Every structure is written in structure tokens, then in C-alpha cells.
Amino acid sequence: MGIVNVTADSFSDGGRFLEASRAIEHGLRLRDEGADLVDIGGESTRPGAQPVPLDEERRRVIPVVEALVREGVAVSVDTMKPTLMREAIEAGCAMVNDVNAFRAEGAVEAITARRVAVCVMHMQGEPATMQSQPRYGDVVAEVSAFLRARAAALEAAGVLHEAIVLDPGFGFGKTLEHNAALFRALPKLAALGYPVLAGLSRKRTLGEITGRPVEERLAASVAAALLAVQNGASFVRVHDVKETVDAIKTWMALR
Ligand code: HH2
Predict the structure, then answer these.
(1) Alpha-carbon distance 33 to 26, whole Å?
(2) From the CA of 254, how far away is ligand 1's center (Å)?
(3) CA distance 105 to 145
């Protein structure tokens, strides 16, 4: 899954793809580099990010979704807002990716109205405050119980089991230790019976490990993506598609 942030303030590429034409061009490039899905987001969820009003998020996201769908790109839409989910599905997106796990009022109804894949992510707290003091008793047990419960709720509401992807939400209300515990538990999460998505690309945790600023986290991001796939992830959400695809292809050919 390649990332296109149509935002002014995303932590690694804020402002680069705010113009629709640039976002579309970038999405096409990621597809050509080997992304099976292109994830479009119009609201940053980085720690401390401020919410974006619906009208603005719609103005950023929908034209990009429409253009990429017209070009035959499989598009995922990264949003927490039920109205935008409906409009993105109407525009032809293949997946709705909700870092809030479809807990907003009307979100479950939005995705059951039509057949679409869904990514259900765990987050402790909300973006504005989630990194202030994340706390867990047993992070792996709590995150997997949450994901299981949300998947069960979606299935009870009519979402097909086959349409659900689970994501432990690296960096969303988690310290380096929490992220590492969840990373080691990827095989266990995959054993819940749904494909797992892992998103570590350029994240702060990789900066803590390597001591590098965000623009120098390519090698760490590729390593994390490759290790995630080796640990059972079916999807990796990445900014650097070409490099990640090369790493995974090399492993697949040589293993
Ligand atoms: N991470 C980010 C955003 N959306 N969705 C899923 N399913 N999993 C993730 O790990 C995830 C996500 C944050 O990364 P990015 O989009 O690059 O930054 P920002 O939120 O600042 O736009």
C-alpha cells in the first residue's frame, strides 16, 4: 500500500501533495512502482495533529480518488469521517482505512451500505494527545482483543469476514517498547484469521531506533516493512514503494 497524503501537515510529506494534480501524479507513480493499493488521506493523524473539517477533507480527497479510480488504480481512503467514507465508496474506492476503527457514529452504516474492504486499526486515545503517556497492562493482549471485538462488531453488522484487514496501529498511542512488542506479535495477530496491515514507514519509532530525522529513515523503513512481511503482515503501508518492493522481491526470490 503506497501512501499519498493530500495534507499540509503530515509528518513526513506534509504540503508536497496538497494540490490535486500532484497527488494524482504521485499516486500513479506509486502504482507504477508496484503498489497494489494507493491510500489517500486528507487529514494528518500524526501526534498532535489538528482535525480537518469535512468540507476541506472532501475537497482534498475526492478529486484525487476519482482521478485515480479512472486510471484503474485500486484506491484506499484513509478517513475517520462517515460522510467521506460514503462519498469515497461512491467514487469507487476499494478500501476504507479508518485509524479510528469505525467507532464514529454512522461509520459502520457507511461501510455496510456497499461492498468495500475495510482496514480496522487500533489507536489508544486520539491523535491530538495519544503520545502524551500511552499506558497498557499487556499491550499485545489489549490490542488483539480490541481488534477482535471490532471485527466481530463489523461482521455482526454485515461486513464480510473476507473484507476485513486488521492493523495494530504502530505509533498510535504507543511507545517504542509497545511498538516492538506488537511487532514481535505480528504472527499472533495474523493468527486471528484476518490479513494484517503494518504501517511503520518513516515513523518516530524508527527515528528512536536509528537516531535519524524523518527524511533519513528510508533504510529503516524498508527493513521494517520487510520484517513485517516476514512476520506475517499481508499489507505494508509505505511511502517508498519502489525500494520496499525491491526488498520484498529479493527476499522472495532468495529465501
Ligand atoms: N499511519 C498513518 C496514517 N494512517 N493507517 C493505517 N491503517 N495504519 C497506519 O499505521 C497509519 C495509517 C500515519 O502516517 P502518515 O499517513 O504518513 O502521516 P500523517 O498521519 O501525518 O498524514
Answers:
(1) 10
(2) 31
(3) 21
Question: What's the CA dihedral at 150, 154, 159, 164 to 10 degrees?
Answer: -10
Rounded CA gap, 83 and 56, in Å? 13
Indicate the top mutation candidate among 46, 102, 164 to test ligand 1's pocket, ranked by most ligand atoms within 8 A of CB: 46
Residue 186 φ/ψ, nearest 5 degrees: -55, -40
CB 30 within 8 A of CB 12: no
Residue 87 Cα to ligand 1 midpoint, Å, equals: 20
What b/e sequence results for 117-155 when a residue is b if at least 16 CB atoms lie within 10 Å of its CB, and e otherwise?
A: bbbbbbbbeebeebbeebebeebbeebbebbbebbeebe
Index of the ligand 1 atom closest to the CA of residue 46 = 21
pLDDT digits (tens, 9 = 90+) for 133-184: 899 999 999 999 999 999 999 999 999 999 999 999 999 999 999 999 999 9
Q: For 103-147, write each residue's pLDDT tens digit.
A: 999 999 999 988 899 999 999 988 888 788 899 999 999 999 999
Residues with Cβ within 8 Å of 178's Cβ and at least 6 positions away in sequence, in order, are 134, 136, 139
Q: What does the pLDDT read at residue 145?
A: 98
Instruction: Please give the sequence-ordered ranges of beta strands (E in DSSP) within 82-229, or none if there are none.
Output: 95-98, 117-121, 164-167, 197-198
Give, using CA atoms, the residue closest to atom 21 of ligand 1: 10
Domains of the chain: which residue ranges? 2-254
d(CA 171, CA 184) in angstroms, rounded, equals 15
Closest CA to 128 of 150, 100, 161, 88: 100
Q: Which CATH class is domain 2-254?
A: alpha beta
